[in-house]
Inverse folding.
C-alpha cells in the first residue's frame, strides 16, 4: 500500500510525520532539560508567566508542560501555591539506583561477552575525555561525558531493549548525579577504567561486579551527611518555534 492509497474497508492510512516538532513538545523537552541540567533547581517555584516570557512562548504550552512534568515526577503542583521543581527524596534516589544497578550490571556483562577491540578503544577514549574535563575543573562537561560513556557501553552490549530502558533511567540519574558529581569525578573515571579492563578481558562476572560497585559508590556519596546538594543555575533559553 502506498501513502496515497488504501485497501477498501481499511480505516487507517500511513501519513507523513509532522514537522517541525509541536511547540508543546518543544517546551516540555526544554523544561525537562532545564530541570536535569540544574537550570531549574529542586524546590524552585515555577511561575508560568516568567517561564513563558523566558522561553518565548505563550502560557498555554507552559501550562501543558507543567501538568505533564507533574505526571512524570519532575514537578510538584501544590494547591493554592503553584508549581515547584520536585525535590527528590532519599527513598526515590535509592529506588532509582536499584534499577540503575540492575541495568548497568547486565549491560556490563553483555559488553564483556561481545566487545570488539574498537569498542574498547572507544570506551577508553571517552574515559580520557572525562579525565580531561576533571583536570579542567569542568563539572558540566564531565557530566555530559559520563552520560556518553554509559550510552556507549549500552551500545557495546548490543541489546536494544536494555539500551532503551537504560536511556529512560539515565535521564533521571543525570539529574540526581549533578548533586554528587563534584565529589565523584576522580573516582568515577578510575572506576570506568576498571570496568573497561574487565570488558577487555572478557570477564563478564568481573564487569558486572565493577558496574555494581560503581553504582553503590554513587549511592554512598549521595547519602553522605556532609554532602549538601548543589544547585547549578542556567539561563533559560527560548524554545524552538
Amino acid at each position: 500500500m502506498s501513502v496515497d492509497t488504501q485497501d477498501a474497508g481499511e480505516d487507517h492510512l500511513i501519513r507523513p510525520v509532522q514537522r517541525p516538532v509541536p511547540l508543546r513538545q518543544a517546551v516540555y523537552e526544554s523544561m525537562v532539560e532545564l530541570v536535569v541540567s540544574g537550570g531549574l533547581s529542586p524546590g524552585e517555584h515555577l511561575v508560568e508567566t516568567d517561564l513563558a516570557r523566558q522561553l518565548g512562548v505563550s502560557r498555554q504550552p507552559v501550562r501543558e508542560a507543567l501538568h505533564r512534568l507533574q505526571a512524570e515526577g519532575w514537578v510538584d503542583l501544590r494547591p493554592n501555591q503553584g508549581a515547584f521543581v520536585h525535590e527528590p527524596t532519599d527513598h526515590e534516589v535509592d529506588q532509582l539506583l536499584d534499577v540503575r544497578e540492575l541495568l548497568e550490571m547486565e549491560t556490563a556483562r553483555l559488553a564483556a561477552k561481545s566487545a570488539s577491540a574498537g569498542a574498547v578503544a572507544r570506551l577508553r577514549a571517552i574515559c580520557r575525555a572525562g579525565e580531561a574535563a576533571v583536570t579542567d575543573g569542568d563539572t558540566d562537561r564531565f557530566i555530559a561525558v559520563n552520560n556518553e560513556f554509559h550510552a556507549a557501553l549500552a551500545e557495546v552490549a548490543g541489546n536494544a531493549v536494555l539500551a532503551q530502558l537504560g536511556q529512560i533511567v539515565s535521564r533521571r540519574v543525570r539529574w540526581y548525579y549533578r548533586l554528587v558529581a563534584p565529589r565523584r569525578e576522580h573516582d568515577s573515571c578510575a572506576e570506568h577504567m576498571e570496568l573497561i579492563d574487565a570488558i577487555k578481558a572478557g570477564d563478564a562476572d568481573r564487569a558486572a561486579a565493577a558496574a555494581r560497585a560503581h553504582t553503590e559508590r554513587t549511592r554512598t556519596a549521595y547519602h553522605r551527611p556532609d554532602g549538601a546538594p548543589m544547585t547549578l543555575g542556567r539561563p533559560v533559553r527560548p524554545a524552538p518555534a
The radius of gyration is 21 Å. The beta strands are 45-46, 75-78, 82-85. The chain has a mean pLDDT of 87. The first strand starts at residue 45 and ends at 46.
